[in-house]
Amino acid sequence: MSSTVMLPKNADVAQNSGSHGYAHGHGSGNERGGGHGHDNGGGDGYARGGGDGGDGDGYAPGGGHGDAGGADARSAAAVDARGRASEGGRRRVWVVGIGSGGLDQITVEAVHALQAADYALAAVKSAPAGAEGLPTDPLFARREVLLGRHAPNVELVGVPDPERERSSSSTSTHGDYRGVVLDWHEARAAAWEQAMAERPGDVAIPVWGDPAFYDSTLRILERIRERGRLDLDVQVLPGISALQVLAARHRLVLHEIGGTVTVTTGRRLQEVVAGGVDNVLVMLNSDLPIDDLADWHIWWGGNLGDAGETLVSGRVGEVLPALRAHRERLRDEHGWVMDVYLLRR
Ligand SMILES: C[S@@+](CC[C@H](N)C(=O)[O-])C[C@H]1O[C@@H](n2cnc3c(N)ncnc32)[C@H](O)[C@@H]1O
Description:
Blueprint: E1 16-17, E2 23-24, E3 47-48, H1 77-80, E4 90-97, H2 108-116, E5 119-124, H3 138-150, E6 155-160, H4 174-198, E7 203-207, H5 217-227, E8 231-237, H6 242-249, E9 262-265, H7 269-274, E10 279-283, E11 297-302, E12 310-315, H8 316-334, E13 336-337, E14 339-344
Parallel strand pairs: 4-7, 4-8, 5-6, 5-7, 9-10
Antiparallel strand pairs: 1-2, 3-13, 10-14, 11-12, 11-14
The chain binds S-adenosylmethionine.
S-adenosylmethionine is lined by residues 38-40, 42-43, 45-46, 100-101, 208-210, 213-215, 241-242, 283-285, 301-306, 338-340.
């Protein structure tokens, strides 16, 4: 049976009931102006008109220090543990989880870290072919809006993201895919190292969702440390992952009592299911490889926290056509789509 999830009145999204037992969200009075946003620091992330995406290169207003709030702004232990400024050539870097789309989905501790930084740094992806008319990099743009709201005096510096090899011949196996991603991490590490070398001070890196899930920021910072040019003191502030937003919106506990939940990618789903897993969260989806799981139950969320937020749940065999239609619609209407789902046998 499929079902419709009702959102709280003050939710950051609007919704319309779908005809097939699914809820289907559309732009509402949220301040994201048609919103876009997803992340990626790490792997694939989201699908756009033509591929992957980044955004324009942009700078948030201001340019100085995040002094808003003075001592209060740095009250969280993780932020003020070692004094105010980078010292003796040591650079403090706060890797800040910013939540998965909603501008208020950020912790107070994370806001303090943003405010305490001298500047923030984020990758800017080039627009994919065929994406004319779309914001150049919706996720970068979203970070700009987020900083404007929570740390308006902190400049967001864009680092042009090196292109990643995406041909199917270079990523056809897991090993090939890993090799391509590692090369890309190296190129990214060099670009970020240069950006930080050119600008002294404490740095905040706003990371989509939580830095621990399918995000490469921590691996890239480790590479920069290994290269030996910069002495980095890295601290991590957790964020609300898309997994948690999915669970909250569907009012789900992610596992049965005392049970197990596996987290994997769309790319590896079939292998994981073949291995006997029967309760699995799936991220990084370039498509929905679940035709063979018609009798399983799915709880699906697309563009969570954004104006297009859409929720569907039901038996896979019943809702799959609607899910595919939603993915197309979100891409067309919002310029990007990111989805996450729980599958249970
Ligand atoms: C590169 S991973 C980053 C995950 C992120 N670190 C987190 O904790 O949510 C991007 C994937 O997360 C999921 N995701 C992130 N934001 C989402 C959103 N707003 N709505 C639905 N899925 C999202 C999608 O599966 C997407 O392909």
